[in-house]
Amino acid sequence: MSSTGCTFADRCVTVLCCRFCRQVLSWRGMQAVLLAGTDTDTDTALYSTDMPPSGAVDFIGSCRFAEVCACRVRSVACLKCGNVVGYHVICPCKPCLQSCNNGHLWMFHSHAVLGINRLDPSGVNVLLWGNLPALEESTEGDTSCASEEEFIR
User: Fold this and answer.
1) The pTM of the whole model exceeds 0.70
2) Residue 64, by phi and psi: left (phi above 0), alpha (psi -120 to 50) or beta?
3) pLDDT averaged over consecutive 10-residue blocks of the chain (153 residues)?
4) How far is residue 147's CA from residue 49's CA, in Å, rounded to a whole number?
5) Helix count (H) and strand count (E) of the chain?
6) Rounded distance, CA 114 to CA 148, Å?
7) What is the DSSP letter of 21?
8) Distance in angstroms (rounded) separating the CA atoms of residues 28 and 13
9) Please, are residues 72 and 44 in contact by the beta-carbon 8 Å criterion?
């Protein structure tokens, strides 16, 4: 789904936590912008991930068309608190597929999640997408979101 000529390797990897209950939703988040917004005044800030957030969210409602394009989407809610935190792109529309995109189909509303920059194995530098192992997901037992200070250290 990624367009040639687009690079996301220098983007920071973020830990995504539910803003309402601090449940970790993904260890592979990225700040994103809604592709359908062509005018900078209408672009919408989001977070996204390339992996299904297993055990953290579940679908609610039925499949529908996105508000700004022809993508088919379905809302997702945090399993811990039940609040809607984002949506899954079930079927991307042609314009979105043809635009510069990161291939992520799990989207999270910036008002519903906290994004905390993840550190690399040294614990000193911010982890970048270009250095993230493919399809790696943390298996740490703690699913509550640590403080931002702990991730920065």
Assistant:
1) yes
2) beta
3) 65 96 96 62 76 94 92 97 96 89 90 95 92 62 48 41
4) 21
5) 2, 9
6) 9
7) T
8) 6
9) no
Yes or no: say if 50 and 103 are a contact pair by the CB < 8 Å rule.
yes
Beta bridge partners of 1: none
Residue 151, φ and ψ in degrees, nearest 5: -75, -30
Task: Give the distance from CA 127 to its chain's centroid.
Answer: 15
Q: Which of 129, 131, 151, 149 is nearest to 140 (CA)?
A: 151
Per the DSSP assignment, residues forming a β-bridge with 59 are: 76
| Spatial CA neighbour of 105 closest among 93, 92, 115, 120 | 92
Residues sharing a CB contact under 8 Å with residue 82, sequence separation 6 or more, in sequence order: none
- Output the 3-class SS for 115-130: EEECECCCCCCECEHH
Cα(first)–Cα(last) distance of the chain, in Å?
35
Residue 7 in tokens = 């690079």
d(CA 15, CA 114): 8
Per-residue model confidence (pLDDT) at position 68 = 86
- Provide the 3-class DSSP secondary structure of residue 98: helix
